[in-house]
């Protein structure tokens, strides 16, 4: 049964890991939303119309329309998912007591603050014009971030990153593992992460929000 939602629209890019975090949160909470694809490859995200939604020219951006049609935009997956969790408290993505929730945020931050930003497209292009060097850079930082996540999560993980409840930490981890695969970073050194990835694949919302479902067909 769908949760009655305000009118929401998500601007996303099919294989952006930050976009996947938000699509997955929406599906996990069963929140209806309109989706609009914004290409990161052909300048669409750099356009004035997208920069009016997010001056950085990044995805994801959530738009909220009120009853008289006023638009409000929220960028940054962390801010968006925190708002969704407050506005739609069913299926909490920050479960447990205050210490548990802080752990969720701490693990998520290893990915959202300290790993994904340094392997972002614009950073790779700024770093080097050579695709092989871009890949080497991304691999180094992804491996470093996942190694830190593995060590921090190992003592607190259950089925998922923090205990047995799916959380915001998993929403950051799994799309980052998808990126790791794209960049050729193996998960062999990370048994806890491999276990969480396998568990997450049992969730219907993993499949319904997966990038492969949103790949433009043309
Ligand atoms: N902190 C932001 C980061 C958003 C971000 O980096 N988005 C990437 C895709 S995952 C992007 O739009 N990159 C465009 C670019 O690098 O030019 C969030 O969590 O939403």
Written overview of the protein:
The chain has 218 residues and is an alpha+beta fold. The protein has 2 domains: 85 residues, Glutaredoxin; 108 residues, Glutathione S-transferase Yfyf (Class Pi), Chain A, domain 2 (Up-down Bundle). 47% of the residues lie in helices and 9% in strands. It is built from 9 helices and 4 strands; from the N terminus they run βαβαββααααααα. It has a 4-stranded mixed sheet. The longest helix is centred in the middle third of the chain and has 23 residues. The chain is globular and about 50 Å long. It starts with 6 loop residues before the first strand and ends in a 9-residue tail after the last helix. The mean pLDDT is 95. Bound molecules: glutathione. Glutathione binds next to helix 1, helix 3 and helix 5.
